[in-house]
Amino acid sequence: MLGAHAHPEITLHTPSFATYMELIEGGDWPGVGEMMLASAHKLAQAGADFLICPDNTIHQALPLIASRSPRPWLHIAEVVADEAAARGFHRLALTGTRWLVEGEVYPEKLAARGIAYMRPEADERQEINRIIMDELTYGIFKPEAVVAFQRIIGRMKAAGCDAVVLGCTEIPLIMNDQNSPLPTLNSTCLLARAALRRAAAAK
Length: 203
Prior knowledge:
The chain folds into two domains: 17-74, Rossmann fold (3-Layer(aba) Sandwich), CATH 3.40.50; 76-189, Rossmann fold.
C-alpha cells in the first residue's frame, strides 16, 4: 500500500499490564477508562492523529472516556463487524477473555449491523480465559489448548455460527483459518489493517 518497507509513523504507550488487570479483576471499568485516557493524552502530545487499542477486553471502558479523548479511536469491534458484513457472515462465535465475552463490546457493534452472535457457555468461557491468561500471555502454547478451542468453536459451528471472532490479541498465536472449524476474524490483524488504511488516507 505504501511501498517496500514503508509504514506510517507509530507511537506506542502502555502502562503495566498488571495495573490494568488489577482494575479489571476488581470490576473497576471507570478506572480502566482513565488509564486509556491517560495514554491517549500522552499519544496526542506526541503527535498522534488517531488512536487504536489492540486489546479487545479494555474496549469495555472506551465508551466511558471516548467523549473526553483528545483524539478519535478506531473501535476494534466495529472493524471486525465491518469485515464480517463485507464477507457475508450472519452469526459469529465470540471468543476472548471472560470479561470480553460476558460484556457488550461485540454484541453492540454486531447488532448495529444486523449480525447475530453466540457466546461460549460458562464453563467454556472459564477454559478459554485460563488458556489466555495462564498460558498464551506467558508464551506457553500447548496442543491441548488448540484442541480445546477447536472443540468450543466446533460446538458453536454446530449451533449455527458461520465464523468465529478471535477476540483476544493472543488467540491468533494458536488459532487460524487452517486449524479452526470456522473461518476466523482475527481482530488484531483487522484493526492493524484498518489503521493502515486510515493513516494512508490521511497522507
